Amino acid sequence: MRTVRKHSEDLAAQQLAGALDCQERSEQRLREADALITAARDARLDAAKKPLSGAELLATQDWLEGAERARETRLAALAHDEREVALRRTVLTEAAAKRKALDRLEERRRSEFDREERRREANRLDEIALTQYGGSAA
User: Fold this and answer.
1) How confident is the model at residue 135 (pLDDT cuts 50, 70, 90)?
2) Contact in structure between 30 and 71 (CB atoms under 8 Å)
3) Fewer Cβ atoms within 10 Å of its own Cβ: the N or the C terminal residue of the chain?
4) Residue 113: inside a domain, yes or no?
């Protein structure tokens, strides 16, 4: 039973590690989206300084809007990954608590068994002493 609990805890830890990796990748993609938005805004500012056709201005604006939509999508993905990490942490915490409770129960049962064994041994020793004392008195 302890092996099953330990395996559950190990699996939960692995799932948390995977979720943390996903979150880290989402954070990186969000940083990339932020950089793309900065580049698109800079391009729009540069475009305002020189004469451009209407099509070029629209293309610059479309690029910026696309970058902002991509950022929103990546932000939503990051929020999802953060919720997943929180869930995996909870699962790991619960698995660890169950394993610890099982460990405490096992330790308590071991103590009870050891105490009972000591009691039995003491009874045997008492019987031996009584037998020897009773045998020499007779």
Assistant:
1) low
2) yes
3) C
4) no
The whole-angstrom separation of Cα 75 and Cα 42 is 22
Mean pLDDT along residues 87-106: 93
Q: pLDDT tens digit string along 65-83?
A: 999 999 999 999 999 999 9
Dist. CA 35–CA 56, nearest whole Å: 21
Residues in the chain: 138
Do residues 79 and 23 make contact, with C-beta atoms less than 8 angstroms apart? no
The total domain count for the chain is 1
Q: What SS3 string covers 119-137?
A: HHHHHHHHHHHHHHHHHHH
- Joined together, the tokens standing for residue 39 give 């580049």
Cα 4 to Cα 8, 9, 10, 50, 93, distances in angstroms? 6, 9, 10, 69, 16
DSSP state of 53: -
Question: Which helix (H) or strand (E) is 51 found in, with range?
Answer: none
Q: Which domain, by its residues, includes 50? A: 2-103
